[in-house]
Write a structure and sequence with these properties.
alpha/beta; 5 strands
Length: about 140
């Protein structure tokens, strides 16, 4: 069982719902975290989802904290590149943390399709984390 974070901006929620519905069989049996309304919407397909706060109200930061604690295996985030987001800095921080902690991330339907069809999906995988000890031990 893997832990999957699911997020979608308003204009992309239907796309994520369609994608989850299409891949429901492969997704079932995993644990899910989602931001507010996205989680409520997807629970009709996936069942139990840990619903965090709405993204603009701190949900993106909650997911980022889960990533930094090693509790998320995959991030699927259908974000909208055409709409200004009031929490843009939180979105960037979430994406930054997924890269920093080497979490497989999909930001659109194509990358999510590649992720879920990979032979690595659902199997044991150990991210290669960068050693940040020089950064942590620097003299400031």
């Amino acid at each position: 069982m893997k832990t999957i974070a699911l997020v979608a901006h308003d204009a992309k929620k239907k796309d994520l719902l369609d994608w989850v519905t299409k891949h429901a069989e492969k997704l079932r049996g995993n644990e899910f975290y989602a931001t507010g309304t996205t989680g409520k919407m997807l629970s009709s397909v996936l069942g139990d989802i840990h619903c965090l706060k709405s993204g603009p109200l701190g949900g993106d930061q909650q997911l980022g904290a889960l990533i930094s604690e090693g509790k998320i295996d995959y991030l699927i985030f259908f974000w909208d590149p055409m709409t200004n987001q009031p929490h843009d800095v939180d979105v960037k921080a979430l994406l930054r943390l997924s890269v920093l902690y080497d979490i497989p991330s999909a930001c659109n339907r194509a990358s999510a399709d590649f992720m879920i069809s990979s032979m690595l999906f659902g199997n044991e995988y150990t991210p290669e984390l960068h050693d940040y000890s020089d950064y942590l031990n620097r003299n400031i």
